[in-house]
Design brief:
Helix 2 runs antiparallel to helix 3, helix 8 packs across helix 9 and helix 16 crosses helix 17. Strand 20, helix 17 and strand 21 form a beta-alpha-beta unit. The chain is α/β, with parallel strands linked by helices and about 800 residues long. An 8-stranded parallel beta barrel has the order 11-12-15-18-20-21-24-25, surrounded by 5 helices. The chain has a 7-stranded antiparallel sheet with strand order 10-26-27-28-33-30-31. Strands 1, 2, 3, 4, 5 and 6 form a 6-stranded antiparallel sheet that branches. It is elongated, with a radius of gyration of 32 Å. About 35% of the residues lie in helices and about 25% in strands. This is AraC-like DNA-binding protein. InterPro entries: GH, GH39_cat, Homeodomain-like_sf, HTH_AraC, HTH_AraC-typ_CS. One of its GO terms (molecular function) is sequence-specific DNA binding.
Length: about 800
């Protein structure tokens, strides 16, 4: 059924094989059946509701099952191109492979357009026309992206230069621009720009500019009623005569003849009536309409679709950049066995953590040998030097490990005298080697001794005495040091922390900070036996932090300074190896952690940098379920990629919600972080001591649902913006999923490791977008476990 003007809609019932060569823009949507589509060198499989677009010149071959039913909508080039700047970009519209866009708007409009043809009343024509214009609006707003670079065989390192050249030409082609003027804009010499331009575009600047102006003039010839003289001047030609001469040389005829030959001046015709449609087609349309309306209701109640708005000129919140404040780099006892320096160097290059935490530094056999009453600071010195070399500040975890520590009942017995002697020796050695000024930058975290699985713990009263002695000792030797700690578990040690704070208050000691470690567990006690389950609820990190901070405020005396709040260790698991540490759960956990805690903590330290640290001997498998950001062979896990992407965010927060965060940088730049975490299922929550098999790793999670997220930035400066989005999901950036595709390697060889190092990276999309009336809109389809980072930069 045809519309003689810009839009033609039909319902086709087809089977077998058929080929199409498109002379117009063509949207196809499957109503019934399954279709295999061969398009170029690719095959696509379209099922019910799938939508795909073809542009003029595309050729496709269809393979349809019995009685395949399609809605097909054609749009004349003149109708579409006068409303969408197709010469500046490309359409992304293929729901069979594209998971980043929500196709419900197109689906609803195409079905409604087809049903409008079944109506016989006088208003059906007007209704059809309004739907046609809405279809074009959605295509241009949601499924069209301006191209940043489409120059072939050019290194990506030149992308920004090429983009700036193209943007300058697009913004100034109607003016009398010259090569020297553009060279001044680029801050290059004219000769260098001329050579660069010829190498990239394979023609000189004058010829390129003339061709660009002629191509832009064609749009005005076809889609406006302006005179040839006006178009010539508007497109940068010196006069109409020069324009006509250049046009004839390029297109073979005058602008006036070209306009008469190709301009389309037709009107809508009456849509065909219901009698022209088969009953089967009408029933499918009506059924799909009901399904799509149900989808709309789900969207409206907030379960599938979210719309967030941020005013970029509102008051900014300066926040601590918790996404790079700290990382646990190694436990003291593993310093001799891991080449940590290379790992620190790489993390600093990619992320730039501020603090590097050394765990269990005061293990009673690490720096002190009781057999000959001697100290050895060799490995400690290596670690401090490695941190300082790459610009990381030492975070000293002054905590005894549980090895060989006597136990009385449930309490560890710590020799406070020996502890203070070792600490004093360490401080005096550091002061002599590194200097007091350097040591005043460090963090000194004095932790209570506690065992996670046995619940054996140092007596809180005894610890308060030991902490007071260590606090005074550090402040005497390093007066400007930040001293605090306890390193207590947020899951079940709030009472211990409160008791210690009250004892210290009696001694007139207020720690500079309180440190808490948070892991996703809750404790379960049954007949005196303590076990743990995963904490699968939303916002458990935020809940633990709020509870602890409230307790700290209650313990402080009026007029006392409230200690800072540090999360000294946080991660997906603590003591049990589990493949959830290797899947995309890790990346979603990291993003959600930052979003939840960004305004509530003063320092956040992720546990831990590498699987090689804390772990001892490794196995033959590529992955072992440990909780590092880097696998044992130095390959980045999903969590590492997210920290790397977040490092570009500024500390100027303008918006935050349950699953998103937006920061503002300098010169009209913005970063948008989105995540779609998936809960661990209730069944697996009760099986903390069990590790699932590799092939069943994802069965421990609840079924995840995709999110359709709209972001609107209000009050932005009008102009063109470069949009770069990075996606970490199961298809892109997941070491575990890439490993699984290979069939679970054991004893991976050098070629396999090299392949994975190259393969594990986020998916990167680039586009250009223009703000309209001070508003930028984004529509992102976020898969389960997926994290998306969007960089928005205004082009000037």
């Amino acid at each position: 059924m045809e519309q003689e003007y810009g839009v033609k809609t039909m319902i086709a019932q087809r089977s077998g094989i058929w080929k199409s060569l498109y002379a117009k823009y063509h949207l196809a949507m499957v109503l019934q059946g399954n279709i295999r589509l061969r398009f170029g060198e690719q095959n696509f499989y379209l099922s019910e509701k799938d939508v795909i677009i073809f542009v003029p010149g595309d050729q496709a071959e269809y393979f349809g099952g019995r009685k395949s039913l399609l809605i097909e909508t054609e749009m004349d080039a003149a109708f579409l191109e006068s409303r969408i700047p197709v010469h500046e970009g490309h359409f992304i519209c293929n729901s069979s492979v594209d998971q980043q866009h929500d196709y419900a708007p197109l689906q609803r409009l195409m079905v409604k357009m087809a049903l409008a043809l079944t109506k016989g009343n006088d208003m059906s024509q007007t209704y059809y026309e309004s739907l046609a214009y809405m279809l074009v609006y959605h295509l241009g707003s949601n499924y069209f992206e301006k191209t940043i670079v489409n120059i072939e065989n050019v290194s990506e390192k030149y992308a920004d230069r090429i983009n700036e050249i193209l943007l300058y030409i697009r913004q100034n082609y109607g003016k009398g621009i010259t090569l020297s003027a553009m060279a001044r804009h680029m801050r290059w010499s004219s000769s260098y720009l001329s050579r660069f331009f010829k190498n990239v575009f394979k023609e000189n600047f004058v010829d390129y500019l003339k061709r660009y102006r002629l191509e832009r003039s064609v749009h005005q010839l076809l889609y406006t009623k302006e005179s040839v003289s006006y178009i010539a001047m508007d497109c940068g030609f010196p006069n109409a005569s020069a324009y006509i001469q250049d046009f004839r040389a390029y297109y073979g005829e005058t602008p006036g003849n070209y306009r008469k030959k190709y301009s389309i001046q037709k009107e809508f015709s009456r849509p065909m009536g219901k009698e022209d449609l088969s009953e089967n087609a009408v029933s499918f349309l009506e059924k799909m309409t009901k399904d799509l309306e149900t989808d709309t209701e789900l969207i409206m109640d907030g379960r599938q679709e979210c719309h967030y708005m941020a005013d970029v000129d509102s008051e900014e919140k300066l926040v601590v950049p918790v996404w790079k404040t700290g990382i646990s780099v190694a436990a003291a006892s593993y310093m001799p066995f891991a080449d940590i320096a290379d790992e620190i160097k790489e993390a600093q290059k990619d992320i730039g953590f501020i603090y590097g935490r050394i765990s269990f530094l005061m293990t009673n056999t690490f720096i002190y040998n009781p057999e000959n009453d001697s100290y050895n600071f060799y490995y400690f010195t290596r670690m401090i030097q490695a941190l300082r070399k790459d610009g990381m500040i030492p975070y000293l975890d002054i905590n005894y490990a549980c090895t060989n520590v006597p136990v009385k009942g449930k309490n560890y017995i710590i020799d406070a005298g020996e502890f203070l002697r070792c600490l004093e020796a360490l401080l005096l050695y550091s002061a002599n080697v590194f200097g007091i000024g350097e040591m005043e930058k460090w963090i000194y975290d004095i932790g209570i001794v506690f065992h996670f699985t046995t619940h054996n713990c140092e007596d809180p009263d005894a610890f308060a005495e030991r902490f007071a002695g260590a606090y005074r000792l550090i402040k005497r030797i390093v007066p400007g040091a930040r001293v605090g700690g306890f390193d207590v578990s947020a899951v079940f040690m709030a009472d211990h922390c409160e008791l210690i704070l009250n004892r210290l208050a009696q001694k007139k000691i207020v720690p500079d900070f309180i440190s808490v470690n948070i892991f996703p567990y809750v404790s379960l006690e049954n007949n005196g036996y303590i076990n743990y389950a995963y904490a699968s609820g939303d916002g458990f990190l935020k809940k633990y932090v709020e509870n602890f901070k409230g307790m700290i405020r209650r313990c402080c005396q009026p007029g006392d300074k409230i200690p800072e709040f540090f999360v000294s260790a946080v991660g997906t698991t603590l003591m049990h190896r589990h493949y959830l540490n290797d899947t995309c759960y890790q990346s979603a956990f990291v993003a959600k952690m930052v979003i939840d805690l960004v305004e509530d903590v003063d320092l956040l330290c992720y546990y831990q940098l590498s699987d090689m640290n804390f772990s001892g001997a490794e196995d033959q498998r590529l992955l072992g379920g440990r909780n590092g950001l880097v696998a044992q062979f130095g390959i980045h896990k999903p969590g590492y990629l997210i920290f790397m992407l977040m490092s570009a965010m500024s500390n100027r927060l303008i918006a935050r919600g349950a699953d998103y965060m937006i920061t503002k940088g300098d010169h009209d730049t913005y970063n948008i972080l989105l995540c779609n975490p998936v809960k661990i299922s209730g069944e697996w929550c009760l099986k903390i001591n069990e590790n699932t098999s590799l092939s069943n790793a994802y069965t421990i999670y609840e079924p995840g649902e995709s999110k359709s997220i709209f972001i609107t930035l209000n009050h932005v400066n009008d102009g063109d913006y470069r949009i770069i989005s990075y996606h970490v999901n199961r298809e892109n950036g997941s070491l575990f999923d890439e490993w699984e595709k290979t069939g679970f390697w054991e004893n991976p060889g050098i070629h396999e490791l090299d392949y994975l190092r190259q393969a594990i990276h986020p998916k990167r999309n680039c586009s250009m977008r223009s703000s309209v009336n001070g508003q930028l809109n984004f529509h992102i389809h976020v898969q389960p476990f997926e994290v998306v980072m969007i960089e928005v930069v205004r082009m000037v």
